[in-house]
Amino acid sequence: MNTSSDARLDWVAPVGAALNRGWRILGTGLSFLLFGVGGILMGLVVFPLVWLLTWNRARVHHRMQFVIHCAMRLFVEIMRGLRVMSYSIEGADKLREPGQLLIANHPTLIDVVMVMSQVPQTSCVVKSALFRNPFTAGPVRSAGYVPNVDSARLVDRCAQVLAANHSLIIFPEGTRTQPGKPVRLQRGTANIALRAGKPLRPIIIDCQPSTLTKGLPWYSVPSRKFHISLRVGEPIDIAPFLDAGVSRAVAARRLSAHLEAFLEQHRHAHRET
Questions:
Q1: Tens of pLDDT along 187-228?
Q2: Disulfide engineering: 172 pairs with which of 71, 90, 185, 201, CB 3.0-4.6 Å?
Q3: What is the CA radius of gyration of the chain?
Q4: CA angle 271, 94, 155 (to 5 degrees)
Q5: Strand, helix or coil for residue 224
Q6: CA–CA gap between residue 115 and residue 169 (Å, rounded)
Q7: Which stretches in the chain have pLDDT values below 70?
Q8: Is the Cα torsion angle 247, 250, 253, 259 positive or negative in sign?
Q9: For residue 61, what are the CA distances in angstroms to 52, 144, 153?
Q10: d(C-alpha 138, C-alpha 57), whole Å
Q11: Within 10 Å of residue 22's Cβ, how many Cβ atoms?
């Protein structure tokens, strides 16, 4: 019986696991550091250059959005290259159709990054705090993103974006889903869809093991590299919710309840497949 070999194996596995976790903490921290520095550089250098070199002001937002798309794609690939994460996408080609209202559930901090890395040009509803954050203020303002402020103005602004045949990304929960809790949506998304007369293209996002959730610090990495999967669904028609004689408020409640049930059902179905 080779007791020395057994003893060696007893400590090799835990040490290897600790080194692996340490590397992923370092890689995650490095990724977010690069994200912050990149946001500042883009705001101070890249976006002013795009603005100066774009004579047609109507194209400024489009070019800015494409630059952000490229930056998000690079960030995702950096995280994948550092072996912090892996990802898969089903139906990515559907995201490239213009003028879509894209909605997604929100399990992790980098969901926005993941979706925008796959859509070359789109506007996005973002927290108003991002317009005051030095890392993000320049990019979100230059790209013409929509701040999530007054509900009436938000609906009108989003309807204008969609009427111009530009795509729009919304995370209708308004914040990250807490693990173990059901999906709960803000009603603004339903009002935007009804106001614009647009179907909604759902994106179901899953992250295993769960990480970067609400209230969890970035350095609390899971026991192994996490995998994010995106599944792009077929459009959800709003016509069935616009019955004759039904008020917009009632239609919005019905559509919002349907979207909650849809995202909750498909979130669990996605995880089981």
A1: 789 999 999 999 999 999 999 999 998 888 888 888 889 999
A2: 185
A3: 21
A4: 90
A5: coil
A6: 8
A7: 1-13, 57-58, 135, 244, 268-273
A8: negative
A9: 13, 6, 20
A10: 17
A11: 11
